[in-house]
Amino acid sequence: MARAAAGAGAVAGAGLVPAEAAQNHGRRKETPAHTHTNGVAHGAFFNQVDAATIAAFTDRLMPGADGKPGAREAGVLNYIDLALAGAYADLQEFYRRGLAQLDVYCRKTYDKSFPQLEPARQDEVIAALEEGKPTGFTWPAAQEFFNTIRTHTMEGMFADPIYGGNKDFIGWRLVGFPGAQAVFTPADMRSKVAFARAPMVGLQTEDGRRQDRLPHERS
Fold it and tell me: Which candidate, 77, 79, 88, 131, has a CA 20 to 30 Å from the CA of 7?
């Protein structure tokens, strides 16, 4: 069920995201479990309870640490919320069922909802989902649900900010992706150092207008 970004925005650049990024970006230690959405915009599709679960889940997949921003800072929750209200609307029931099954599993196993668990327990749940171990998952299957959220987390981190994630080009800056530049000098082209010079321009102009149509609007 995990889909390539096709409407909510593809991750910019093949090979942009390191292979281990989702697992080793920087585990937060002693971070309190989330019981709210930290002010991140949501409501296009998710209710408050589901938003809290997705915020906590994506934060464990791509946590910030040691000055490195993660899913929370990049607005991944907002990206997924908007995508499910638009280009990924066909996945709404998939998410509803998956989140309901996740809640039942967490309450049965730990007597708490996923956002109420300590980070170490949240990581245990996520690892179990990745391996397809939790019982009680029919559709979507546990591993399928994990793979879809992971895919959408990566999209929210690294897709063009116009789609609601990658806030302030956080994801692009993290991996040294320059976005659109007016000029690349010969020195820029030869350099092996991460490119960090502003401006980093995406599909939206400085006055807020889109430079291009959304992928699903193109002929």
Answer: 131
